[in-house]
Amino acid sequence: MTRFTVNNQPVEYRMAPETPLLWALRDASNLTGAKYGCGTGDCGACTVDVDGTAVRACQVTIGEIEGAFVTTIEGLARERDHPLQLAFIDANVPQCGFCIPGIIMAASVLLKKNAAPSDAEIEAAITNICRCGVYPRLVAAIQRAGRVLSGDETINAGARPGIDPAEAARSVPALTPPN
């Protein structure tokens, strides 16, 4: 059994220590914000924060992070109101949204270390791949979130899109194919 903390909750996984963190999060904990993209650590869709480091969850096993503190997109802000999330919404960064949780998690690690990153520092830290090409808006949103975290600016993003997490877990009736 492997033990570590996920989103401030102690967790004990009864899975093989060789299990990739991504699958423990998605399959055992039902934390599906980290996405399976490439499986090789290149795309960054599965990025989470492990002890203050942006980690590709498909590339680390649960045995390797025994005792660690893991934060996923679901644990970043319970009400989906982290400055990064609000800045991304306000700047209309998300397109398809598949890569966004991983990008936000990589950006949150960056902003913890440097609240005022330059364009070059953001480009060096955010190596995630976005097929929609949101990069120009992404850089501006990360810098704005840094200013919000520093108290130099506020964001009034209005109503946040999405569904209530309690609604996301409800049972959905099976679809019936058309005749």
TrEMBL record:
Listed name of the protein: Isoquinoline 1-oxidoreductase alpha subunit
Region called Disordered, residue ranges: 160-179
Keyword Transmembrane helix: no
Lineage of producing organism: Bacteria, Pseudomonadati, Pseudomonadota, Alphaproteobacteria, Sphingomonadales
Source species, domain of life: Bacteria
Gene3D superfamilies listed in its UniProt record: 3.10.20.30, [2Fe-2S]-binding domain
InterPro entries the record matches: 2Fe-2S-bd, 2Fe-2S-bd_dom_sf, 2Fe-2S_ferredoxin-like_sf, 2Fe-2S_ferredoxin-type, 2Fe2S_fd_BS, Beta-grasp_dom_sf, Diverse_Oxidoreductases
Organism name: Hephaestia caeni
A molecular function GO annotation: 2 iron, 2 sulfur cluster binding
Pfam families xrefs: Fer2, Fer2_2
Membrane keyword on record: no
Keywords from the named record: 2Fe-2S, Iron, Iron-sulfur, Metal-binding, Oxidoreductase
Residues in 2Fe-2S ferredoxin-type domain copies: 1-76
PROSITE patterns: 2FE2S_FER_1 (PS00197), 2FE2S_FER_2 (PS51085)
